[in-house]
Design goal:
binds adenosine-5'-diphosphate; Dna Ligase, domain 1
């Protein structure tokens, strides 16, 4: 076995690979850019080598520099993680030349699967079903429309070099096919330096289901079941689970057999993933093969009990796989949620900043893979993922319940994050029923995400806020030295929620609080102390975790994907508050604001021009994605306030309507 390996990556995946290496008694070397000098992966490694300035191209993508770091530290092998150089066959070749083992597939398999057009041709030969379409490179917009018509709408225009959901457009008619050709080509060029696109049938209401394969150097390939990753936003995975609630044993076996056939066709070795898109009739079609460890591999690990990184390392060291297909057993259900630094309330625009507070949850069946700790900086240079939260349990329903509790307890302050959105998502009835598709988020959140609290849940928020205020008042009374504290504590409180007033009468009853509301009695048990970020309470026998933040004279409570600002006041103070004038929010509907920081690529309109709902107004590039801003109503353009080439801040005015 290797004595020392280098991890050519950062963040959670670097930490995750090191965890297994350490357990196997292998020493670890980290690499880092200047932005990561104090990062967790650097601190956790036995040794760390600086490889360059923050931009990835000059550090984590710098093959020469990383190979040099391998030489300097005398490592025998390199694990590439995912992203960065993990699917770069030139990196695998450079390592081979330097006599260093690449913990991954052969360079030829990476190259064969690195291009969507080439890999689909290969899949056809291997007898693997692909999405119906046309595997020719599209030369121009007119041809795009003609070929799309031939395939039959809707279609998907895709970058052959694509990845990460970039360079991908759906089209429902000729006009969209022409426009999609232009923007997909442009995005592909800027993201991958390769503007080849092709067109395939768009499968409607599809599910994304992928098969994990594992192959050794002796020609044995097995599959470790599937992961369903249908919950996506902009073709990027948000929630993944194993097993899929949709597959039957027959379909699973058929998909597994095709995945293994494809892997064998390219002499695959190591862990890899064959992605399929599955339609409502359970027809499945090959999408692409990822020749590396996937972000969502933990759900497979939890469902099979196997450590994929361990097997990647063992296989790279020349060990044969000691198990057969029939030895692979699945237990329970595992669900992963990706926690990102982004603002779901503002169309998920990326967020950055210091993790002022970072408290991951713990518990039975809970796994958190993170590359950060409190105080870490989420910057602009890299992927905005903060952590992966995985819950495993005997049944899917129980795994969902555990994941909900863990999301409620995951306390992050600093950058904006998507935890409440994830909680709201998995709280949906349709999620519980397993009726998933890649349209799930668009269908279930048609107007975006607003962290709403359901009417039946409001009462629990009101009671929790009342309890928190009462406990804070008890403590104040104690601090003020009043010996028999409870005698002097206010009994009557009013919870103010917007204009609504909820009067409560609260009294201590031993370890519990007795609360009267609308003539009904409630019982609350909590050991919360003022200042703690989590209020764990049992309200009328049901346990719940609320995140609690001071907000002016009130609290913000967050739970189950909803957040409310509540003030708990004495009746007199509540009356005074009711008489205060309210602030009016300014009317911004006459302006087109930039929803994210980015580059204004183009403006599609001129001053004085009339536009109709849906017309393109501007194109903004942010995080290497092109975002088309469209008119939300009919109107006339009065003034342009920005020009192509400008860098825009969030909410910067782009143009004004008359
Ligand atoms: P990338 O390499 O950028 O991740 P993929 O080909 O793996 O691109 O596709 C990503 C996602 O896009 C899929 O999971 C699916 O949601 C959607 N998608 C891709 N191709 C199709 C298609 N033909 N029909 C419907 N959805 C598709």
């Amino acid at each position: 076995m290797f004595k020392k390996i280098l991890i050519a990556n950062r963040g959670e995946i670097a930490c995750r690979v090191m965890r297994t290496a350490r357990r196997m008694g292998i020493a670890t070397v980290a690499v880092y850019s200047d932005a990561d000098a104090e990062a967790l992966h650097v601190r956790e490694a036995d040794k760390a080598v600086r490889i360059g300035p923050p931009p990835s191209a000059q550090s984590y993508l710098n093959i020469e520099r990383i190979v040099a770091a391998c030489r300097e530290t005398g490592v025998e092998a390199v694990h590439p993680g995912y992203g960065f150089l993990s699917e770069n066959h030139l990196f695998a070749e450079a390592l081979a030349k330097a006599g260093i083992v690449f913990i991954g597939p052969p360079a030829a398999a990476i190259a064969a699967m690195g291009d969507k057009i080439a890999s689909k041709k290969l899949a056809q030969v291997a007898g693997v079903a692909s999405v119906p379409g046309n595997l020719e490179v599209i030369p121009d917009a007119e041809t795009a429309a003609r070929i799309a018509r031939g395939i039959g709408y809707p279609v998907m225009i895709k970058a052959s070099a694509g990845g990460g959901g970039k360079g991908m457009r759906t089209a429902y008619n000729d006009a969209e096919a022409r426009e999609g050709f232009g923007s997909a080509t442009h995005e592909a060029k800027s993201s991958f330096g390769d503007d080849r696109v092709f067109i395939e049938k768009y499968i409607e209401e599809p599910r994304h289901i992928e098969i994990q394969v594992l192959g050794d150097s002796f020609g044995k390939v097995i599959y470790l079941g599937e992961r369903e990753c249908s919950i996506q936003r902009r073709h990027q995975k948000v929630i993944e689970e194993a097993p899929s609630p949709f597959l039957d044993a027959k379909t699973r076996a058929a998909m597994g057999a095709q995945a293994v056939a494809l892997a064998k066709a390219v002499n695959y070795r190591s862990a890899g993933t064959v992605e399929f898109i599955v339609d409502r009739q359970r027809n499945f079609y090959f999408l692409e093969m990822n020749t590396r460890l996937q972000v969502e591999h933990p759900v497979t690990e939890m469902a099979t009990g196997l450590d994929l990184v361990e097997w990647m390392i063992r296989i790279a060291a020349g060990e044969p796989l000691p198990f057969a297909q029939t030895d692979i057993k699945f237990a329970g259900s595992a669900i992963e949620a990706r926690v990102y630094a982004e603002d779901p309330r503002r169309n998920f625009l990326p967020s950055i900043g210091r993790l002022v507070r970072y408290r991951p949850p713990e518990g039975d069946g809970i796994r958190v893979d993170a590359g950060v700790d409190e105080g870490a900086e989420i910057g602009v240079n890299y992927d905005p993922m903060i952590a992966k939260l995985v819950a495993h349990a005997a049944t899917r329903a129980e795994a969902i319940r555990r994941l909900r509790g863990a999301l409620d307890a995951f306390y992050i302050r600093g950058p904006r994050h998507n935890i409440d959105f994830l909680a709201a998502l998995i709280a949906k009835k349709r999620f519980a029923e397993g009726r998933l598709s890649t349209d799930f988020i668009a269908d279930e959140f048609p107007r975006g995400f607003a962290a709403e609290v359901g009417p039946d849940e409001v009462e629990r928020f009101v009671l929790a806020a009342g309890a928190a205020q009462f406990i804070a008042a008890e403590r104040d009374a104690r601090i003020e030295g009043q010996v028999s504290a409870d005698a002097s504590i206010e009994r009557d409180w009013v919870v103010c929620l917007g204009h609504a007033r909820h009067p409560l009468a609260i009294a201590r009853d031993g370890a519990r609080l007795a609360v009267e509301r609308d003539g009904k009695r409630h019982e609350i048990a909590t050991d919360w102390r003022p200042g703690e970020p989590l209020l764990r309470a049992t309200i009328d026998g049901t346990a719940a975790i609320f995140q609690i933040d001071r907000a002016g004279i009130g609290f913000t409570l967050t739970h189950g994907g909803g957040a409310l600002d509540l003030k708990v006041l004495t009746p007199r103070a509540a009356e005074l508050l009711a008489r205060m004038p309210e602030k009016q929010a300014p009317d911004l509907s006459r302006f087109l604001l930039s929803p994210m920081p980015g580059l204004l690529v183009s403006l599609a309109v001129a001053e004085g021009q009339e536009v109709r709902t849906g017309d393109t107004l501007a194109v903004i590039e942010a995080m290497k994605m092109e975002n088309v801003l469209r008119a939300e109503r009919h109107g006339t353009i009065k003034t342009l306030r920005a020009k192509a080439g400008d860098s825009l801040g969030v909410d910067q005015v782009i143009l004004e309507f008359a």
